[in-house]
Amino acid sequence: MIKKFKDSNNGGTFIGVGTAIGVAVFGITNEPTWIAVGVAIGVAISWIKK
Q1: 4-48: per-residue pLDDT in tens?
Q2: 25 falls within a domain
Q3: In whole angstroms, what is the distance from residue 34 CA to residue 47 CA?
Q4: Looking at the 3D structure of the chain, how many domains does it have?
């Protein structure tokens, strides 16, 4: 019997979503720090999901 794993490998998706949120907040506040914060949040979420 072949066992198929259900690992979707979507870690990069969360990083992209976090970056998009950071860019959106940057567009409102004009502070580039929010882009880094968004990336950090995406990395944290993808790290927790593993």
Answers
A1: 656 556 667 888 889 999 999 999 999 999 999 999 998 888 887
A2: yes
A3: 20
A4: 1
